[in-house]
Amino acid sequence: MSIEKVRQLMIDGDGDAAVSLVQELIAKGTNPHDIMAGLTDEMEILGQKFESFEVFLPDLMVAGDTFMQIMGVLKEHLVAGAEDKVPATVVIGTVKGDYHEIGKNIVGIVLQANGFHVVDLGADVDPVAYMEEAHRSNADAVGLSALMTTTMPKQEEFIKLTEEAGKKGQYIVCIGGAPTSPDWAKRIGADVWSFDAFEFVGKLKEALKNRKK
Amino acid sequence: MSTFRMWEVFAKADEGPFYKDQNEWMVKSFIPQMKRVVKEHDIKWDRKTIVNCDDALADRLWAAAKDFFVSVGVYHVDTHRVMKFSEQEVNEVLYTKRPCYMVGAGHDQRWLRVRAVEDREKRPFHLFSPDANFSTDIHKKACMAYLKEPLLDGLCAPLIEDFMGRKATSQSPTEVAAAMEHAMNLRDAQRLVGKPDVWTVSVGTAETDQAQIAAANPAWGVRPSHLDGRMVSILTEMTTNDAMLNKSLHYRSYGNVFGNLCGAIFGGHAGGTEATAVLQTAYNIQGACLYGSCWALNFPFHLKWQSTTTRELLWIQSMLSQAMSRNSNLIYLNNLFANAGPATDQLYWECANHAFACESSGGNPWGAATCRNKYTDRATPLESRLFHECSEASFKMRLTRAQTDDLCQKLMEKYEALIPVDNYGKTIQEVYDMEKITPRQEFVDQYLRIKDELCKMGVQFAY
Predict the structure, then answer these.
(1) What pLDDT is stored for residue A6 in this prediction?
(2) What is the CATH number of the domain that holds B162?
(3) Is B1's pLDDT higher than 50?
């Protein structure tokens, strides 16, 4: 009975067993922050394996789902020892008129695995809904995904709206999706463009670091 | 048309099991069922083969796909319900599906049909399609350039980028107008090159249901019945929505010989190679049952590269083709998405490999898309020409699957290491003289050089 076992249960997607083991560990005095650190490490390892296709999205989703179940238990204990820094919040979604979610979902999972707090607005998201959620959750970044050439302009529309609303610079604007490119990102004034979810995490961390300077 | 019962199917969107979101359905149903069918039906890939020669494996793949579809159903994202089909319903659809359609008219009329594995009688159906955006000012000429291709049996024209200086945007008037302009350009282009009745799959610029409906007009736009084709997508993965059902309703009432556009993602929700093959095959069953589609366009693609020409993706195309040709009347085409761009040798090797991997497995070529589908104006009829000439050569030579696998292995060596490289080549304006609508000599020379190299590898072209 150990954190190692919890990590394995998370990979196996056995949420019930994982939750009951975590409760047992905490009752016996295990530091919840150590459990949290172990799970975050495991998610990071899974993310790396996914990048090289040693594991696949279903493995990440199953583990991610179990991770969230465990977090439901750990949360109250983690708050008690709130010396940890607050994780950066990223609002993500697929733009209005576009129903393709897989790229955005992978970004969400990889962000969570890297310790970000993710607010996922789903697909077909109105530009105003991104803005409202970014304001409500005091977001550090907003990520807009588009898979169609006819929905890419919604990324531009969002940036234009933030400028008109005087919110430019309040959060980092990130775009992605198969038809997008660095040229497109530059043209519409996005802060971050990346080839895939893994590159995105690195670029976002860098952008957040620069923003704090 | 089959006896598919449209309204009974639509009702399933309001009556099936409820899941609060797609993620819950994925974790509780889709993922465990996929793991089960891959294991139970013993679907395995050796990580090397490109063209499958194992008939029993192809038959098991078909059984796995049918099992998966019946077990999982289709998630409807608007109603949050799963549209489930019984095995009896699936069998009815499969039995009543027509194995061939006469498409187009006059001297442009062709048969679109199911082909057999290592088919010796039925030549492939050559559907040309750049699957790319072209600038509005060259759109009509680009359509003409493709329509001039000698092997062309049908065309899915390039998309229009802008309308009146504004980017065509989904759900807005610019999309509706661009879709109408697309349809008008295509009809004009057909007349101007002397192929007025060729079967076109229209209109790619119309992403939404309302834009598709707006572009349908027998006088100037998309024609009804067998004269034109349409497409309705399956959303990733195994999901649909009201807009897609609206499209299928419109296509059926307009009488088009329409298809189901489906691309399982390798590395996506299904997982690895074997599961992606199951999912992609299941999509063909899904399109027939859910939308009543007459055919399917298969584009299983790589999550990272957005292409269909990697080793695992070619195996998937070969497998699904054999699974369906051996076990069903479902008509399908095999879509090529290449990594490289026009006027690069890499693009030609990718086109050749995709054509050979599919033809002997019973496939029909649809292509060629380039540059990971990312850049405007970066596609030309030349790479499509090679793609279709290779498919025709494979048929004319009556290549067996074993012979084809040898050839595909050699072709794979030419570009496999280059796949991660961004090699996007040139635009159509650089490769073609857009006044004369002919390729420039240096690119014709390159084309002929590639054909010579293929001849040295044993390929005998039809002409």
Answers:
(1) 94
(2) 3.20.20.460
(3) no
CATH ID of A3-80, from 3.90.550.10, 3.40.50.150, 3.20.19.10, 1.10.1240.10: 1.10.1240.10
B171–A99 C-beta distance less than 8 A: no
Which DSSP string corresponds to chain A?
--HHHHHHHHHHT-HHHHHHHHHHHHHTT--HHHHHHHHHHHHHHHHHHHHTTSS-HHHHHHHHHHHHHHHHHHHHHHHHTTTSPPPPEEEEEEBTT----HHHHHHHHHHHHTT-EEEE--SSB-HHHHHHHHHHTT-SEEEEE--STTTTHHHHHHHHHHHHTT-TTSSEEEEE-TT--HHHHHHHT-SEE-SSHHHHHHHHHHHHHHHH-
Domain that holds residue B112: 100-456
- Tens of pLDDT, residue by residue over B388-426, are 999 999 999 999 999 999 999 999 999 999 999 999 999
In a domain, B2, yes or no: no
Which residues of chain B neighbour A150 with C-beta distances below 8 Å? 168-170, 175, 205, 207
Q: Name which of B21, B241, B270 is nearest A99 (Cβ-Cβ).
A: B241
**Domain contains B27:** no
Does the domain at A89-212 match CATH 3.40.50.280? Answer given as yes
| Chain A neighbors of B35, CB-CB under 8 A | 58
Tell me, yes or no, whether B335 lies in a domain.
yes
Give B181-203 pLDDT, tens digit per residue: 999 999 999 999 999 999 999 89
pLDDT-above-70 percentage for chain A: 95
Q: Which of B170, B234, B238, B242 to mutate to test the interface with A (most CBs of A within 10 A)?
A: B170
Chain B closest CA to A64's CA: distance in Å?
A: 10
